[in-house]
Structure formats: C-alpha cells, structure tokens
Amino acid sequence: MDEIVGALGWKSSVWSKGLLALMILVCTLVFLLGSYWLEQTLQLGPYPVQIIIWITFLFWLGYLFPLHHYTAVGSRMVRSYRSGFYRHILPGICLNFAQLLCPLFYAVIFMDFWPASLPFAVVGLMMMAIGSLMILLGLHSLGIAGAMFIREYQEASPNIISQGIYGLMRHPLFTGGILTSFGTAVFLGRNPSLTLGFINLMVLPAFVVVEDKRCGRVFGTSYREYSQTVGAVLPELHWISSRKRQLLTRIMSRRHQM
Fold it and tell me: What are phi and psi of 52, to 5 degrees?
C-alpha cells in the first residue's frame, strides 16, 4: 500500500494506510446502503436495482474510466493518479465491492444467516474457498497497487503481468470475487440472496468483454497477444485445449513421417 499512499501525496505510515482502508470500507457501505435506499424508494425490488447498478458499473469501466485515463496520462496531467483515484478508482472499486456483498448484505437485513441445507452449505463453502484463493493469488502476482490501477497511471507503457495465476487466467480478481459472492449466496440458499448471487454470476461474461477492450487500449498489442494465449476465467479448459492442439500436432507429424 506504500505506492498508493505515496501516489496520493500522503506520508507513508500506519495511520495513512488505515485511513485508506477506512475510506474503502465507508465508501462500500455507502453504496450498499444507497442501493437499498434506492430499492425502497423506487419500489423496484432488489433485482432490478442490482441489474441497473451493474450496467452503471460496466459503463464506468468501459467508457468513463478509460476516458479519464486517456486524458490524464495522454496530457501528462500533474498528479494524474490522485485525480483518477478520487474521481473514478475509489468509487468504481467500492461499487464493485458493494455489488459483490449484496447477497450477504440482504442476509444481514433479514437476519437470515443459516444455510438452507447441508448440500447448499458445502457447495457454497467450496465456491467461497476457491474464489478467495483466486483473489489471494491474484493479489500476490499483481500486488495491491496493481489492483488499484496505479501502474496504468505511472508508466507510459505498462507491462503485462503474466506470472503466477495471471499465466493461467486473465481476470482472477473479478472472477474470484464473483465466485465468492455466488458461493455466499449458495451457502445461504434462499432469496433474495440466491437470486442476487446468480445475477452477479451472469455479469461475468459482460465484464470480460468490457475489461478486455479497456486493457487492449491501455496495454496495446501486447495484451491482445496475451489474451490469445491465456484464458479469461477458465484456465483448466484453456490448458486442456492447448494440450489437445499439441497432441494433435504430434500425431499429424508422426503420420507424415510414416
């Protein structure tokens, strides 16, 4: 977190790091409470509100955030990361966190924490464990500063991170977050948490499309080459398909030799 604190112009200390964590927590809670207030005010129910907010998030990720990044970095604007952090990065990340926490949030509202059945609990816990592991491995490879987009603002041509889990899948952080959120919903096994978790899961393909386009603008041709060799959210299937192609190539070469 030292890089983030420094880029924001703060002195590196335990207090500054704690303040940053508190800002993220408070902002996330504001979005959670705001979505609930919106649902109660408009009388739409939690599901339409969840969908509307996800559409807003994808619009931010695919248009508003890249537009600010292009303007700030392209014009070499002074303190570009600080500007991007307060205007886009902090609210965007916290909105994402709030959406992922919605299944748990509604369980808290209705005081319904117990799983519907043992199978739901087991499957949900397995999903939560896998999703959490993806997040931890992603943060280990990318770093917290990388997850907070600092590299994209500090370097003219940032390099692709392809070590660790990023050598197997392109979006482990978001995929892990979605899987953890859906696992929480499955663990609870009741509506509205279950449906909210399913809505979160359905957002994943749209996120991949939007984020791949955004990263293509930031990283250029290197990202497009990277995306052709590394799967988006299913590393096992990508690895199997690669092995099948290698095996087929060997078989064909042996036939030509015979």
Answer: -60, -40
Report the distance separating Cα 1 and Cα 17, nearest Å: 7
- Residue 152 near residue 69 (C-beta atoms within 8 A): yes
- Per-residue model confidence as pLDDT tens digits over 193-247: 999 999 999 999 999 999 999 988 888 888 888 888 888 887 645 445 555 445 4
Q: Judge whether 101 and 32 are in contact, CB under 8 Å.
A: yes
DSSP for 67-120?
HHHHHHHHTT-TTHHHHHIIIIIHHHHHHHHHHHHHHHHHHHHTT--S-SSHHH
Q: What is the pTM of this model?
A: 0.85
Written as one letter, the residue type at 31 is F
- Model pLDDT for residues 100-135, shown as the tens digit of each residue: 999 999 999 888 778 888 889 999 999 999 999 999
**Tokens at residue 237, please?**
């299937």
CA–CA separation, 249 and 254 (whole Å): 9
Number of helices (H) and strands (E) in the chain: give both, helices first.
12, 0
| Residue closest to 105 by CA, chosen among 200, 192, 210, 12 | 192
Q: What is d(CA 4, CA 145) in angstroms, rounded to the nearest whole number?
A: 6
Written as six digits, the tokens of 2 are 């030292």
For 169, list phi and psi in degrees, rounded to 5: -150, 150
Can you tell me the distance from the alpha carbon of 88 to that of 81, in angstroms, rounded to the nearest whole number? 10
Could you say which DSSP state residue 46 is in? H
Who's near 165: CB < 8 A, 6+ residues apart? 134, 137, 138, 140, 141, 172, 235
